[in-house]
Amino acid sequence: MWSTLIAGRHPDAARRMRGFALSIGSMLLGLTIGGCGFNGTEYRWQLPDGFPTPLVPEDNPLTVEKIELGRRLFYDTRLSANARQACASCHRQEHAFSEPSAIAIGSTGQKHRRNSMALVNVAYSATFTWAHPGITTLERHMLIPLFGDAPIEMGAGGHEKEILQRLKVEADYQRLFAEAFPFQRNRINFDNVSKAIASFVRTFVSFDSPFDRYAYGGDDSALTESEIRGMNLFMSERLECSHCHSGFNFSQFVTHESNAPAESPFHVTGLYHIEAQSADGFDFGLFEVTSNPADKDRFKAPTLRNIEYSAPYMHDGSLATLEEVLDFYAAGGREITQGVWRGDGRKHPAKSAFVRGFVLTEQEKQDVISFLHSLSDERFVTDPRFGNPFAPDRARRE
Amino acid sequence: MVPLPRTFRIIFLSWLTIIGLVACVGDRSNSVVVQFEMDRGDAGNAIGEVRDLRFYVHDVELLDASGQAYPLALTALAPWQSADLALIDLVGQQQTNLNTALRGRAQGEQFSGIRFKVGVPFTLNHVNLVTAAPPLDRGDLFWSWQTGYKFLRADLTDANREWSFHLGSTGCVSASAVRAPDQPCSRPNLIRVELRGFDPTKEPIRVRIDELFKSMSTLQSSVCTGDYEYDRGCADVISKTGLQASNGECMNDCRGQRLFTVHVSSATHQ
User: Fold this and answer.
1) pLDDT tens profile B116-137
2) What is the spatial distance between Cα B70 and Cα A342, in angstroms, rounded to a whole number?
3) Tens digits of per-residue pLDDT, A197-211?
4) Are strands B50-63 and B73-74 parallel, antiparallel or unpaired?
5) Which of A59, A235, A341, B92 is the most exposed place for a label (fewest CB within 10 A)?
6) For residue A220, which residues of chain B lie inside 8 Å, CB to CB?
7) Which of A49, A259, A261 is opposite residue B137, by nearest beta carbon?
8) Confidence check: pLDDT of A68 > 60
9) Whether pLDDT at A396 is above 50
10) Are B79 and A353 in contact (CB < 8 Å)?
11) d(CA A118, CA A16)
């Protein structure tokens, strides 16, 4: 259109203009193709209106290609030394990417002291694992299940070459790694493995529960009366639940594009307060990282989204049901009368000021449980984008 | 295009000049910074760790010797300030990321006092946290749509226990915890602070953590976070705010408040 306009006055200019337009056009085309080919396709977050965009590390931009590669790796048992366990073995989608057992068992059969954490909205997590202030990215976190040896989880340590070789010989992986990390030579390495898995897990976003439709969607009919009563109790000063399970992700550990770094306190809930000075194998939580005695028995308050799917509960899975968790908080902690871990958690000196205990009627208790169930996002636990990409026969190998 | 008549151009240019001059001369305001400082007073080391000490501030006015008030227009500085509201954080995360000052512009030059409110105005207090603009995008300062924000959050520990004082509006009526009230809450609990006899742009306002700590030692339970009227442990700490627990309003303009002072305490300044 410009060229016609100009042509009306200066016939020569029209030709020049067309030539110019062509060269600009081909430059743009080149850039576009180059852009896609070289950097990958930028991933577009699908978040409900108003929800903040998660932060992504600068050295691992989120691309569709990395997510696809990460999805394969997440579900691939060959990532563990003995090829028996994938990430997905302990992080199962139908359980909000946790598993229905108290503690995790590693690929070699070693017992973990802790319950597999659910992977829900982890893109917003300020810190990872049950109690570690220093692990602030998924990429960094990934090294623990892959290489950790106390206990052995996937047991990749010492088997790096062997594991990478399994991937290198597969045409599928050659292609997927090439698409995800096009600039690099020797691109099939553990740095890229962790970047790809982190990218995939980062997309596990869940904001489509009945609670969301009521609270953020403004749909008054999305919750039942019992759920609303339970929500009011949950957010009341009487129960104090929402002090630690606060904000849009029901966790204090939230960070994203538009907020300042979150205050990230770790709490003593009163689950344990062992009398013994030391007890082999006892999990002291944050203390084990910081060596500060004041940090004994401190753990992170995880998100409660999809909590219905991720039983059992607490850092060691020692409470089987949500009803037990509610009773535990109602009692203001737990006393253990037998064994080496005996002691009265209710009297823990560093117990959170918000775990004071409360009394609920049977109806109120049911209401709170109903509310917790209204945080379940069915779409999240069935979304095929997060599912196993392998054919069923491979999936069974897990 | 027909060229504009010469007279038009002259008129146009003179307007531009006038507007320019007004812009230059009209704004007589000065850049102002008002600092806050945590003061442990004579409680000194008895106070263990202060884990959190944050509060919202709005309606700030600087006062001159004659009592003339000059509104402080807050500068929008995310994540700490909007034009209407500032968040002061005297502890921060791991002793970093503090925000100890109000920043804005005010007319007047010689100040000898300040007036402000601690809290969030009703019109801003009951919003959707997810879409809230800074400094209201803080999940750990938000109760619910119904109750709104924690105006002041103080979490302390001593050798034996943790203690928390969270102040905000109560008696807010709405359909549920995640629906905003139409009418102001029956107990607004906004603290009015007026301090005189110092230049707030030169000397910091002291936030008396020792007064909170002394309240803590008289508490039956270890928190005061909502039931200000009937929780026995709240009586002492509420008296430090100048508020009346029975109606959430200032008693005698909150002149009895002890949390914000200008006088340097004896322990830190002899």
Assistant:
1) 999 999 999 998 888 888 999 8
2) 63
3) 999 999 999 999 999
4) unpaired
5) A59
6) 175
7) A259
8) yes
9) no
10) no
11) 62
